[in-house]
Automatic annotation (TrEMBL):
Molecular function (Gene Ontology), one example: transferase activity
Keywords of the record: Transferase
Name of the molecule in the record: Glycosyl transferase
């Protein structure tokens, strides 16, 4: 696949309530950003860009977000 040889992380959830699922993803990504401090975050769609922007703000880490 296109991610072969690239180190990446994904977030999955079985939570059916949309607002809780979004909160879980944003919290998990903000913690991951704080722990790993990556050079860049690459998103594959508009929703993941929104989550990444909110997580970036919550974590206080200034990392570029690309889609």
């Amino acid at each position: 696949g296109w991610l072969e040889g690239i180190k990446y992380s994904c977030s999955f959830s079985n939570i059916r309530l949309g607002f809780l699922r979004r909160a879980k993803h944003i919290h998990a990504l903000s913690k991951w950003l704080h722990d790993y401090q990556p050079d860049v975050v690459i998103c594959i769609d508009v929703i993941s860009c929104l989550y990444a922007a909110k997580a970036r703000k919550k974590s206080g880490i200034d990392v570029p977000v690309f889609s």
